[in-house]
Write a structure and sequence with these properties.
Blueprint lengths: L17 E7 L3 E6 L4 E6 L5 E6 L12 E4 L3 E5 L4 E5 L8 E5 L2
Antiparallel strand pairs: 1-2, 2-3, 3-4, 5-6, 6-7, 7-8
C-alpha cells in the first residue's frame, strides 16, 4: 500500500531551496539552505523552524550549504570555499562561529 500524501511538511519561510539535512537527536533536523550559508534547526514536533544560523564565509557571498554534520556540541557546515564550525559551548552564553581553512 502506498501513501499519496505527506504526514507533515516543513517549509522554509523565505522559500529557499534545502540542499542537505541531518537528523540531530530524537526530535531535531538540521537543514542547509541554498543562500547565505543559512542553517535551520527544526523540531519534528512543530512545523516552524526553532533556530537559524548564518554561517556564510568571510566575503559574505551567497554560498549554499552543501553538507552538514551535527551533534549536540558542534555543527560542521561545508560551504563552497570553506568549512565552518559552530561550537555550542556549554560554559558560554552564545555559539561560537569559527572558520576552518585548508
Amino acid at each position: 500500500m502506498s501513501l499519496n500524501f505527506s504526514v507533515i511538511n516543513w517549509e522554509d519561510p523565505y522559500d529557499t531551496t534545502i540542499y542537505c539535512l541531518e537528523p540531530c537527536g530524537p526530535y531535531g533536523i538540521v537543514c542547509g539552505t541554498s543562500m547565505y550559508g543559512v542553517v535551520r534547526l527544526w523540531d519534528k514536533r512543530y512545523t516552524k523552524s526553532v533556530q537559524m544560523f548564518y554561517t556564510m564565509d568571510k566575503s559574505g557571498s551567497s554560498t549554499p550549504v552543501y553538507s552538514i554534520l551535527a551533534n549536540p556540541r558542534h555543527l560542521y557546515v561545508a560551504l563552497d570555499k570553506c568549512i565552518r564550525l559552530v561550537n555550542f559551548d556549554v560554559f558560554g552564553s552564545h555559539a561560537k562561529n569559527n572558520n576552518i581553512a585548508f
